[in-house]
Design goal:
Among the domains are: about 1-40; about 90-115 and about 220-390, Rossmann fold (3-Layer(aba) Sandwich), CATH 3.40.50.1100. About 35% of the residues lie in helices and about 15% in strands. The protein has 15 helices and 13 strands. Helix 5 (about 145-155) links the parallel strand 6 and strand 7. Helix 4 packs across helix 5 (about 145-155) and helix 9 crosses helix 11. The longest helix has 16 residues, at about 355-370. It is globular and about 75 Å long. The model has no long low-confidence stretch (mean pLDDT about 95).
Length: about 425
């Protein structure tokens, strides 16, 4: 029996069957793209009988230790590469640089394909198998395509990835190594997304794009980040959680995860959520700062060094609602600030993350300077992807090589210089 009671429109509250085929509210969606996103509502009373702190602590770390809070019914169909269970690393050196007492990095780079997207696709590919899918497809500019391709390979089914023209070459290579069939689409992410919908309808592929616009279940795996943070902080939520944002689906999912644990009585407090975007690709920040609804922000051509955050529109109210409910905020950071944060985290804490992930540390610095975050508060920065994903960016900041002959005197001269 599914743990999901029903689906609920996040805009008007209308409820639908858990197996509703339409991914959006039939009433609100008439207003336009992004209206009426549906969200799974779980039977928390039944779940609370099955799990408690002791139960969860006794289980092996990973996404599926929280199976009662994930939308699957047939455990035999689970497709896993041992994702989740990622470390929460307390910063000691960077805290001195930033002037904050309790800073932690949730290091998602150690997931199987080196990004947090593995949490989403272990769930999405499993659901697809449950529904009898013989092939899957999605739109992705990078990490999602890599993860989807890996989990599809594990499941033994074809994976078709439609990418926008600006997709990073190294991530395309990773997708290809996992066996994905890749198509580069001239146009935006939304253009590619519309084509995926059409192709899935025509060829019978299962659409596993991690966009709540296309599936209520697409980001349920992401909320397990919040579950793990609570356990790792000894059943407490932090004061703040800072996450990079493109569409903002994962930000909303992480917030939902904290609310799940709060509703189940596993934690007593809730954090404030921060969404960080790159300057030049910050539609969410424009909406937040301007006190506007998502549909009031006109789509524009995004530009940022953080490729995973390259988006020019706010798709739905999911992320804005998470920020509003949690009394959080949104902040944009420049390319220069992102690169400085990437280098700083690597050189002070030994954690090498991609530019989109480094935006969180850059955002934290800005919010500390503004007095939004107090230096005594506990803060989590979610490091979503590995720096190895976009080496071409890091190479621009690489120190100049010092070439010497193989003898100690030459080394001594080089050291002296």
């Amino acid at each position: 029996m599914s743990p999901v009671k029903n689906l609920k429109c996040i805009d008007c509250g209308k409820e639908y069957s858990a197996e509703e085929l339409n991914p959006n509210c039939t009433v609100c969606s008439k207003k336009g793209l992004g209206f009426g996103l549906l969200d799974p509502v779980y039977d928390y009373d039944r779940i609370s009988i099955k799990i408690n702190r002791a139960t969860l602590e006794s289980r092996k770390p990973g996404v599926w230790k929280y199976k009662e809070l994930l939308p699957i019914t047939d455990e035999s169909k689970i497709v896993s590469l041992s994702e989740g269970g990622t470390p929460l690393i307390k910063s000691h050196n960077l805290t001195r640089e930033l002037g904050i007492k309790n800073l932690y990095i949730k290091n998602e780079t150690v997931n199987p394909t080196f990004s947090f997207k593995d949490r989403a696709f272990t769930v999405m590919v499993t659901r697809s198998l449950e529904k009898g899918a013989r092939a899957v497809a999605l739109v992705s500019d990078g990490n999602a395509g890599c993860s989807a391709a890996a989990y599809s390979a594990k499941a033994g089914i074809p994976c078709f990835v439609l990418t926008p023209a600006f997709a990073v070459s190294s991530k395309l290579t990773q997708m290809s190594m996992y066996g994905a069939k890749i198509f580069s689409v001239r146009g935006s992410l939304i253009d590619a997304g519309m084509l995926v919908i059409e192709a899935c309808n025509k060829y019978g592929w299962s659409n596993i794009t991690t966009a709540k616009l296309l599936s209520p279940y697409s980001t349920e795996g992401h909320k397990t980040i919040a579950y793990e943070i609570c356990e790792q902080l000894e059943w407490k939520a932090p004061d703040w959680v800072i996450s990079p944002v493109a569409s903002g689906d994962s930000l909303g999912a992480i917030w939902k995860g904290f609310k799940d644990f709060h509703r189940l009585g596993l934690i007593k407090n809730l954090p404030r959520m921060v969404g960080v975007q790159g300057e030049g690709a910050a539609p969410l920040v424009k909406a937040f700062d301007g006190h506007k609804q998502f549909f009031e922000i006109e789509e524009f051509e995004p530009k940022t060094i953080a490729d995973a955050l390259c988006i020019g529109a706010v798709v739905g109210s999911w992320s804005l609602s998470a920020i509003g409910e949690s009394k959080g905020c949104a902040v944009e950071v420049t390319d220069k600030e992102i690169l400085a944060a990437q280098k700083s985290l690597a050189s002070t804490e030994g954690i090498f993350i991609e530019p989109s992930s480094a935006s969180t540390c850059a955002g934290l610095k800005k919010l500390l300077n503004r007095g939004v975050i107090d230096s005594k508060e506990t803060v989590i920065c979610v490091a979503t992807g590995s720096g190895l994903k976009v080496l071409e960016v890091a190479e621009k900041m690489r120190s100049k090589l010092v070439k010497i002959e193989p003898n100690i005197s030459m080394l001594e001269k080089a050291l002296a210089r």
